[in-house]
Amino acid sequence: MGRLIVIEGLDGAGKRTLANGLTAALTAEGATVTARAFPRYGVDVHADLVHDGLHGRLGGLGDEVYGMAVLYALDRHGAADEIRKALGQHDVVLLDRYVASNAAYGAARLHQDAHGEFVDWVRAIEIERFGCPVPDLQLLLRVSAEVAAERAAGRERTERARDTWETDNDLQARCAAVYDGLAERRWLSPWEVVTDPDYAALAARVVT
Fold first, then answer.
1. Given 71, 113, 163, 184, which residue has the most CB atoms within 10 angstroms?
2. Which of 31, 37, 84, 87 is nearest to 205 (CA)?
């Protein structure tokens, strides 16, 4: 059975770059790796509704924290069997965002911390009720909210428009604090904070 490894962090933190570098390092060590990213835009209807909500196209639902969180959760619920199958076929299944992102952003929107009731609610619905696989390790790619915002703005010029959460600098700062709290309390699994990735060393820890 493979290991489920999750990369978490703010919008613009560089999660995709970390995923690519870690995949290359793991492959060089002989591990088989498959990667996924959430939300699954263009694949799952719930993810597409999330996209609409983030861009103000779902009326009041986009502003409703629990409503948006359910859409995120349903996207992962729809992928749960695929993840379990992939774990049976690969040494590492690498996810760009997972359950903790729902907990972190929702708690930040409600001005709660990592010990608040929203974080407990996310665990109850995604892990206990929907049966989403539990990560073996979560990697928190930590950058300042200011750096993440600059990167997200730069990406907007070349890739896509930022959504309403990405342009809310106060929300991003609160979300960073929640992520730190989740890592500190080892929410769902062990966490490792990454600031300046050494891909070879990180790959060795991932497969241990």
1. 71
2. 31
| Among 183, 157, 153, residue whose Cα is nearest residue 168 | 153
Residue spans per domain, the chain: 3-206
SS3 of residue 147 by DSSP? helix
| Pairwise CA distance, residues 103 & 69, whole Å | 8
pTM above 0.70, yes or no: yes
Give the orientation angle of helix 45-54 with respect to helix 65-87, to 10 degrees.
Answer: 140
Please, what is the end-to-end C-alpha distance for the chain in angstroms? 13
Structural contact between residues 142 and 9, judged by C-beta atoms closer than 8 angstroms: yes
Token pair listed for 78: 């729809």
pLDDT tens digits for range 33-79: 999 999 999 999 999 999 999 888 888 888 899 999 999 999 999 99
Structure tokens at 30: 């002989």
**How many Cβ atoms from other residues are within 10 Å of residue 80's Cβ?**
14
Give the model confidence (pLDDT) of 6-16 as tens digits: 999 998 889 99
